[in-house]
Amino acid sequence: MGLPVLALWELGGTEGCSGNETGLSFPVNCLDRHVHVAPDKVALIWEKDEPGEEVQVTYRELLELTCRLGNTLKRQGVKRGDRVTIYMPPCPLAVASMLACARIGAVHAVVFAGFSAESLADRIQDAQSETVITVNQGLRGGKVIELKKTVDQAVKQCPGVKRILVSMRTDSKVPMTALDVLLEEEMMKEDACCEPAAMDSEDMLFLLYTSGSTGKPKGLVHSQAGYLLFAALTHKYVFNYQDRDIFGCVADIGWITGHTYVVYGPLCNGGTTVLFESTPIHPNPGRYWETVERLKINQFYGAPTAIRLLLRYGDEWVKKYDRSSLKVLGSVGEPINKEAWEWYFHVVGETRCPVVDTWWQTETGGICISPRPSNPGAKILPGMAMRPFFGISPSLLDDKGNVLLENNISGALCISQAWPGMARTIYNDHKRFLETYLTPYPGFFFTGDGVYRTSEGYYQLTGRLDDIINISGHRLGTAEVEDIVNHHVAVAESAVIGYPHEIKGEGAYVFVVLKKDSGYTQETLTAELQELISKKIAKYAAPEYVQVTHRLPKTRSGKIMRRVLRKIVEDKATELGDLTTLDDHEAVQQIIEGHKLLVEGWKSC
Ligand code: WTA
Fold it and tell me: Where is the AMP-dependent synthetase/ligase domain (predicted)?
């Protein structure tokens, strides 16, 4: 691989940098503190795309990388409070970039490296970032991903960007632009000591973009002290993390799970954390468990979508590998169905490891509802998030805003008291923050999720109450997709609905009314929309189904009746409910028939 990251460490000399602990700032808590006690303890294990090529980074080495990177950022003109966009796959320099921003008081905005150039450009512009950090190329599932090219495309639309710091993940040279700075080369010139900036506990630490039910993705703002405290505590207590454990969260650093449980929680606890660059099926469906055996992972934390996928490949791929190191199995990002839960518990964990189904969100900063196996005798039921974490007070509300006090009841999940890890605002749009989370149920934080409280008082999540869908654990606002579809020349109007998908949890299903004489058919439009949405958002957002219809079901006042469409795509056309406000019953019949034809056509392919 290109310029070896390791060469940087051989320059030596971080020892002198860990002296300043005034205020016990964020980076000191994640690095310097541990360097004093155990400099040679492994902080990161970079599990690269090809199995067996893992790279270990100690706390001393990570501090040094962070300091050199921090000094590079400063020399390039990055100042306290500036936003820095990071578009990198999981790798030590991505973690060092996040920590370096924190160290100099800059605000990082990591963008998942699967997002398209347009999505990246939107996020760079919204954050007003002048700096982007990326890699020349990514490697995932044996494929090369041209990340720098995507950045170049994005930056063409972002005149405010002044510099692109490029790390060499592969040997391949990529065309350079006038903005490019070779990251490793610059880091080598810098001092291995960078004093941590003293920050206020409520200063911004990072922005992370996530989809909402309306408009463009919003940059949620997390602050320093509360976020870190919540990350560290939840990591310790939910996973029963002990000193010397190897923590394996396979999420990408581009999502909140990667921020809190790949990077900040484990590092604040002085732990050893795995950075997983690959996919669950590369080079074969045994990849996770082979990694568990080789790295001796103690806590494994992943998404139900991957569990459902692996379950289909059968037990042999699991049993082939020694999983005796495992102590806790975690699930995150979407509801875990009973079958997947049972397989995870019985086959992967050999009934030895408690499964923690953890409910939380980008907004909550860390896990809010989850079983806690560190609590001896704690009951755990399949597919249930069970109990609130310390300091979290969940409340169920009905549509009239009444608090539901009884058990055995469903309602909107709200949180009635502030907690340390909660997002503080939406970047540059506090009004939207208040409107989205605090106005729907005055006095409560509204999560957007529905929940059922069992007769024993346990919590079971029942899915989103708004127009956010969850594809393979990735959030997507249906409004974002509709916005793109409605701009297509052939489209008069559209509605995007989530439908149940066996592996992905949900998929996107698009209903389209064509403009008169558009010349398009359902087939030609499907291919174009799939490409367009991949290009404008990301591949995961591309719809599997596009159904062309003459009309959309509307109320007499002209509002699209989404709940009717939702029932149809869930194959529950016999349960459409109250249709008294529906303006055109025939349109619904036609849609039901069109849906059957489309789905059956697919099945017979
Ligand atoms: C959903 C991911 C059921 C939920 C950490 C939430 C879940 C959204 C669970 C947040 C779970 C997350 N059971 N649903 N254990 N965990 N969700 O912001 O709808 O990417 O609101 O954060 O995922 O997604 P986000």
Answer: 32-424
